[in-house]
Fold:
Amino acid sequence: MEIRSAKKAELVEIVDLQCLVFRPDEPAASTRYWAYFHEEPTYQFEQSRILIEQGRIVAHLRIWDRLIRVRGATLRVGGIGSVLTHPDFRGRGYAQALMRDAELYMQQAGYDLGMLFTIIGTPFYAKLGWIPLPLPTFSFPVGEPATAFSDSARILDDTADLPAVMALYDTANVNQTGTEIRNSGYWRSGPSRYRELFPQKGIERNGELVGYLNYDNNGSDLKVCEVCFMPGDDEACQVVAHTLFAAAKKEGLKTIKGSLPPDHTLLAHLADLGNSQPSFSQHQKTMVKMLDWATIRKKLTDMPPADPPSDEAAFWNELLNPRSASTPDWLDKLPDAQGFFYWEPDIF
Structure:
């Protein structure tokens, strides 16, 4: 058994393995996975970690180079994705071995923390020391609106409107904790295109983009993927609510679902418009692991204690959420956190 970074000549084998495991019935799947290599500005061969057995690649994971906002600081994230083992070689601990190798690589490469989004549940990764970060979800019944509604948003163009969308995203998310920092290369990348990062509808006022909406019809629900508007712009938020209701009604959908901070003003507008209340829950597919305490401490303006926290789960809970009785005093000197949040289109 050998674990190492991939070589250029091995990308074909990696793409074939991803297609076999993740999208065996999708003829165009290879185009997607090639874009993950050739159209991702931050990609390096070392970010593809492979396990070789009997002269072939039988397990793989990918590391995505990302930046997130945390209490005014910018932390570098090593995002774990595409963790897989060939069906004929499962049950031998290969995925665990790759995860340990990836953590060592990320520490050596200068990442502050690791992040992943599991589709197999948290126990596998929890055994390796990864910490779940619950994200809030909502479900809203689409009944008969209490007032008349209309869709005054317009369809956005991913070329002409991109600068305005980028600027609005940065303004709306600058004080969030957990959201991605997106540069122009990120917005234009192949992975972002496949994940449908660019929003469909925009709200304008006096020729200026003041809000946008990214949503999806999954066949049974209208899923809110991302919402942005100028901070405090209640009028723009109200237009977003009307746009969602119009889309749901037009497509005959019964429910509007998604993930938003519990105090997000869109939920209040949906409640007023639909004359009903959402139900709330959470998912725990998001997980993190500390990689370099020294750099995290430095980026948090050297406020935390010099020694790494003994309870990592408690540390992330205190750092990423509003103040509580258990919050340590040093967090008083940092910008507030309203709770960890991560937009769905950024999931790698």
